[in-house]
Amino acid sequence: MPNQENTARLLPDVAVHAQPHLAGALDWVGMADIQVPVLFDAGDGQVQRSSARVGAFVNLSRPDKRGIHMSRLYLQVEQALSTQTLDASMLHALLRGFLDSHKDLSDRACLSIQFEHLVRRPALKSANSGWRAYPVCIEASLTSDEFLLEFGTEVVYSSTCPASAALSRQLIQDQFASDFDAGQPLGHAAVLAWLGSERGIVATPHAQRSVARLRIRLVPGADFHLIGLIDRVEHALGTPVQTAVKREDEQAFALANGGNLMFCEDAARRIQKALDADAALGDFHVRVEHQESLHPHDAVAYASKGVEGGYGSTP
Ligand SMILES: Nc1nc2c(ncn2[C@@H]2O[C@H](COP(=O)(O)OP(=O)(O)OP(=O)(O)O)[C@@H](O)[C@H]2O)c(=O)[nH]1
Q1: Phi and psi for 230 in degrees, rounded to 5?
Q2: What is the pLDDT along the chain (315 residues), one digit of tens a residue?
Q3: How far is the CA of 266 from the centre of ligand 1 (A)?
Q4: Going along the chain, which residue ranges are E strands?
Q5: Is the CB of 71 under 6 A from ligand 1?
Q6: Which of 109, 231, 295, 315 is surrounded by the most beta carbons within 10 Å?
Q7: Pocket lining: 20 vs ligand 1, CB cutoff 6 Å
Q8: How many whole angstroms from 69 Cα to the centroid of ligand 1?
Q9: Helix (H), strand (E) at residue 170
């Protein structure tokens, strides 16, 4: 039976007192997939609580020390993330706390936080609305006094192939030429009826669900404005996926697709243009993926801000 004396005895701490079997400095040690709630203001002034997965790491610069203090990292993550709204200064302070609790062991700390942020989106035409869950990945690191803050998200949209649209138009012209004799006068009602029939659209261009994966490096002092950023990207593309859709919304979406024919290169350039003007973005990286319905493979384009030594210089 445990007694007072047993429970109060000194517990061995092999991480600190035992020598490692093999000596060596380690790049990163810590915990992945810590389960914790986070509070996030995506820039609309409303703080949302989400379930997150967190990675918390420090380096182990001392080859002769067995291990780091995992519980110290865990407790700081738990305390900070479940009580404070995520922002640049609290993440900086949290990483500083990692290093302060690992004096003599570590001089680098990093943190990754993954969760989904729900946003209510209105339908294109009808009075309905529905939810979009945008994935968010925040990564922060502290090395000496250099604090780096990055975040990533994804925008899903529809892309209609401009080449396929041109080829379809040609077939529609061919059908028109075959159905209407060039020598005969054209009747308005007959043409209108033809346009409303399936013969008036004998070929349709292929379209695909497409994904833009965004990675953003913030300039020092800048904070997340997730919704503003996503809104700009969706507006630049013109065809973000819809939630609640009645027929009037579907028709508006068809019109938006017809007005925004896009190769993956076009989509990447549109996003590049939309982000280039934002001074809060030290760098950005975009991977555009058109999940082709013509091919079994995807069409992919990458774009970045093009800063010296930035994302663009790595494959
Ligand atoms: N360093 C390390 N700890 C691990 C690992 N896996 C589990 N742990 C456990 O994490 C537990 C808590 O770690 P510590 O932070 O050292 O706990 P503690 O010694 O009670 O706390 P401090 O006195 O603040 O150091 C330890 O009992 C370890 O067994 C591992 O791979 N490495």
Answers
A1: -65, -40
A2: 445 555 557 887 777 767 777 889 999 999 999 999 999 998 877 899 999 999 999 999 999 998 999 999 999 999 999 999 999 999 999 999 999 999 999 999 999 999 999 999 999 999 999 999 999 999 999 998 899 999 999 999 999 999 999 999 999 999 999 999 988 889 999 999 999 999 999 999 999 999 999 999 999 888 888 999 999 999 999 999 999 999 999 999 999 999 999 999 999 999 999 999 898 999 999 999 999 999 999 999 999 998 887 887 666
A3: 51
A4: 26-41, 47-60, 108-122, 129-143, 146-160, 207-218, 281-290, 299-304
A5: yes
A6: 109
A7: no
A8: 5
A9: helix 162-179
**Ligand 1 site, residue 67, Cβ cutoff 6 A:** yes
Cβ of 69 closer than 6 Å to ligand 1, yes or no, is yes
Instruction: Using alpha carbons, select from 277, 285, 273, 279 the residue that is nearest to residue 313.
Output: 285
Q: Whose Cα sits closest to atom 32 in ligand 1?
A: 67
For 26-161+206-313, the fitting CATH number among 3.40.50.10490, 3.10.270.10, 3.40.50.11810, 2.30.130.40 is: 3.10.270.10
- Structure-token match 């138009």, residue found: 169
The residue behind tokens 């349709």 is 204
How many Å separate Cα 244 from the centre of its chain? 22
Whole-number Å distance, alpha carbon 16 to ligand 1 midpoint, is 9
296 C-alpha vs ligand 1 centroid, how far in Å?
A: 48
- Residue with the smallest CA separation from ligand 1 atom 14 is 69
